[in-house]
Design goal:
The protein has 201 residues and is an all-alpha fold. Helices cover 60% and strands 0% of the residues.
């Protein structure tokens, strides 16, 4: 006697571990969309193959039904209103969950490097030395500044606030700290919850 297997859920299991917040709509809020894209920007600055890694992780985690290839990934990231070519299309909460799952997975892979950079940053600050004294850290910051300036709209108020190298370096280090926090156990869940601080009804 054969036993029918239960129907496969259309929602990837990893997304079910992220609770759906009680929001006025099922669209991802503006601040959350911005933060997701900036964290992915920091990952690209850390890893030269970051863009390809994002697509690879989407496949590994079974998220390709949600993140449907390179163009779709670009469209999702372009829902960040700070972008030069910002898309007016909304990002759904399911799409946001997929992006956060990708961030958490990549952050775990980059944990050792992020710890090294943050430790180096702290040591340079304590000694009063410029960040150029740590080549790997300087390389990360340079790439982050380049990515940010090439992809963000310089006329947006949120972008104007980061017009100097110093402000962009501060942002890059803040994102690095956030990525490290979400690399640990339940880090993806913590990142997901933090995106909606002040948004939940």
């Amino acid at each position: 006697m054969s036993v029918d297997s239960p129907p496969r859920s259309s929602v990837p299991l990893i997304l079910e571990s992220l609770p759906t917040p009680e929001l006025p709509s099922q669209e991802c809020p503006r601040r959350a969309r911005t933060q997701i894209d900036l964290l992915l920007l920091a990952i690209e600055a850390l890893d030269l193959g970051g863009s390809e890694a994002m697509l690879g992780v989407a496949q590994e985690l079974g998220l390709d039904p949600v993140v449907k290839g390179r163009v779709n990934l670009w469209l999702l990231r372009s829902t960040n209103p700070m972008r030069r070519y910002s898309q007016r299309r909304p990002m759904t909460l399911e799409e946001a969950k997929a992006m956060v799952a990708i961030i958490g997975n990549l952050a775990r892979r980059l944990t050792v490097l992020m710890r090294q950079l943050l430790t180096g940053y702290q040591q340079l600050r304590e000694r009063g030395l410029s960040l150029d004294h740590h080549l790997r850290l300087a390389d990360y910051l340079q790439r982050f500044r380049t990515h940010f300036r090439s992809r963000m709209n310089p006329r947006r108020a949120g972008v104007i606030a980061y017009s100097s190298d110093e402000r962009l370096d501060e942002l890059a280090m803040q994102l690095l700290e956030q990525l490290l926090l979400c690399s640990g156990i339940l880090g993806t869940q913590r990142l997901w919850s933090s995106l909606f601080d002040g948004e939940v009804v």
